[in-house]
Amino acid sequence: MKEHDKLQSDCFMWTWNEKPDLRYLLFTTRNNLTSQEGDLQSKIKMGMMKAMGSVKGTTDLVFYYAGRLYGFDIKIGKDRLSKEQLEFIAALRAQGGGGCEIRSLEQFQKEINTIL
Which of 25, 9, 5 is nearest to 68 (CA)? Predict the structure, then answer.
């Protein structure tokens, strides 16, 4: 399992197991669609997903709590939030929600506990 995927899984599983009252309020988005060089099938699939509502910039995890939506994007190493991810989080903040990049399970736990 890639380091990114492990951290995302750790964040989700901590919430699922340690905060059972929050189950179903934290979920992943299907936001990791990328086309491989010259792979027509990947490009077709990406086009279909966009037409069905996949939006560039959505975060890896979304959390809905007390009428507000929060986005968390898992980042490892030198990865940073993209322009689109920053815009997505800004849109959430404009509506009373929020979000940020997550670099550790401890940071995620702190963010969730602050929201609660």
Answer: 25
Is a pLDDT exceeding 90 seen at residue 107?
yes
Which residue from 74, 82, 87 is spatially nearest to 26, judged by alpha carbons? 74
pLDDT exceeds 60 at position 35: no
What is the pLDDT, as a whole number, of residue 34? 56
C-alpha distances in Å from residue 108, one per residue of 2, 33, 37, 111: 18, 24, 34, 5
Can you state the percent helix, strand and coil of the chain, rounding each to 5? 45, 15, 35
Please name which of 94, 30, 92 lies closest in space to residue 61, comparing C-alpha atoms. 30
Tell me how far apart the alpha carbons of residues 59 and 81 are, in angstroms, rounded to a whole number.
9
pTM for the whole structure: 0.86
Q: What is the CA radius of gyration of the chain?
A: 15
